[in-house]
Design goal:
104 residues; alpha+beta; 3-stranded antiparallel sheet; 3 strands; globular
């Protein structure tokens, strides 16, 4: 079973379920998406499309209001950037096992 995370973005309330554990093929798609997003000469919108490809490889189930992962919104800019940043951060934590590291 995956890991459910709850959206902190008011424009896109709801949750997503991350694939946990994440299979290698999806992990590779995640890595390639992040690498593509760092390419020189691409627009902000193109960068966000790369991020969405990476994010979508890790999502088991989408349940966000006002957000269609097959045709994600580009506007309003602030909430869109917040949801992408939140998803990337949460996926990074899951991949790196941040919650499993004991505090010393």
């Amino acid at each position: 079973m995956g890991k459910q995370i709850i959206s902190p973005v008011k424009k896109f309330p709801g949750s997503v379920i991350l694939k946990d554990p994440l299979p290698y093929p999806d992990f590779i798609t995640w890595e390639k998406g992040l690498t593509s997003a760092k390419a020189d000469g691409i627009t902000e919108g193109e960068r966000e499309v790369c991020f969405m490809k990476a994010i979508s490889a890790v999502i088991e189930k989408w349940d966000l209001e006002n957000f269609d992962p097959d045709n994600p919104p580009a506007t309003p800019r602030t909430p869109v950037l917040k949801i992408l940043t939140w998803l990337i951060d949460e996926i990074g934590k899951m991949i790196n096992g941040v919650e499993d590291i004991p505090k010393e």
